[in-house]
């Protein structure tokens, strides 16, 4: 008996190592085929300001892009936006941007809006946006620099310049929300959908 009942593996429209790990640990077979879209351009052209709506749009656009190149396949797209008050943040471009972003997040609560979409033949079959609320400790510039010295390039691999399951945990006083939402893939709503399609044995 296997867990996955689908005729073919899921297609994951992502290069995210965290998203791959989440699916692999959940026992869901997938092929990773990153979407070649201009995320920032699409977000800017959409005129959308709400972080959850931006994440939902980009998750759907990533899945639709790959779906159009793989007819008949079930394609999963995901996106995550960080919101601090009315401002939205994306993955920092380099260490200096990560330091600047952490200085702004320190001592405050920010939200992670994680969206997932499932598309087949260009039709969106499922979408969900989940929110996690993260309370970051007050941090001195010296603490931020020490953290960045220790984590190195990983600081630019995540939207908040941290990996919560790794050393990023040291930055926080409080975490409210689903662990998978923080990692960037709302797994529980996705599993509910896959189950509803009779794709899972459990
Ligand atoms: N390991 C880890 N990754 C995180 C965490 N928080 C956010 N991320 C990752 O930060 C990235 C958010 O950027 P996105 O633009 O949504 O995705 P991406 O990395 O560009 O990958 P694509 O899906 O190909 O667009 C995702 O890869 C998330 O998995 C965390 O706490 N731990």
From TrEMBL:
<dbReference type="GO" id="GO:0009117">
    <property type="term" value="P:nucleotide metabolic process"/>
</dbReference>
<dbReference type="InterPro" id="IPR003697">
    <property type="entry name" value="Maf-like"/>
</dbReference>
<dbReference type="GO" id="GO:0005737">
    <property type="term" value="C:cytoplasm"/>
</dbReference>
<dbReference type="GO" id="GO:0047429">
    <property type="term" value="F:nucleoside triphosphate diphosphatase activity"/>
</dbReference>
<feature type="active site" description="Proton acceptor">
    <location>
        <position position="79"/>
    </location>
</feature>
<dbReference type="Pfam" id="PF02545">
    <property type="entry name" value="Maf"/>
</dbReference>
<keyword id="KW-0378">Hydrolase</keyword>
<keyword id="KW-0963">Cytoplasm</keyword>
<keyword id="KW-0546">Nucleotide metabolism</keyword>
<comment type="similarity">
    <text>Belongs to the Maf family.</text>
</comment>
<dbReference type="InterPro" id="IPR029001">
    <property type="entry name" value="ITPase-like_fam"/>
</dbReference>
<protein>
    <recommendedName>
        <fullName>Nucleoside triphosphate pyrophosphatase</fullName>
        <ecNumber>3.6.1.9</ecNumber>
    </recommendedName>
</protein>
<comment type="function">
    <text>Nucleoside triphosphate pyrophosphatase. May have a dual role in cell division arrest and in preventing the incorporation of modified nucleotides into cellular nucleic acids.</text>
</comment>
């Amino acid at each position: 008996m296997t867990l996955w009942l689908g005729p073919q593996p899921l297609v994951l429209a992502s290069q995210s190592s965290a998203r791959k790990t989440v699916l692999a640990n959940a026992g869901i077979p997938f092929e990773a085929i990153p979407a070649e879209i201009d995320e920032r351009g699409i977000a800017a052209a959409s005129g959308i300001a709400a972080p959850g709506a931006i994440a939902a749009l980009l998750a759907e656009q990533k899945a639709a892009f790959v779906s159009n190149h793989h007819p008949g396949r079930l394609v999963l797209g995901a996106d995550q936006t960080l919101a601090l008050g009315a401002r939205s943040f994306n993955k920092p471009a380099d260490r200096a941007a990560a330091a600047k972003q952490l200085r702004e997040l320190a001592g405050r609560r920010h939200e992670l809006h994680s969206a997932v979409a499932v598309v087949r033949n260009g039709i969106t079959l499922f979408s969900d946006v989940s929110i996690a609320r993260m309370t970051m400790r007050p941090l001195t510039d010296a603490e931020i620099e020490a953290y960045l010295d220790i984590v190195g390039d990983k600081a630019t691999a995540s939207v908040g310049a941290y990996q919560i399951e790794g050393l990023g945990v040291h930055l926080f006083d409080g975490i409210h929300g689903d662990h998978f939402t923080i990692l960037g893939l709302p797994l529980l709503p996705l599993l509910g959908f896959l189950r509803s399609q009779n794709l899972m044995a459990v």
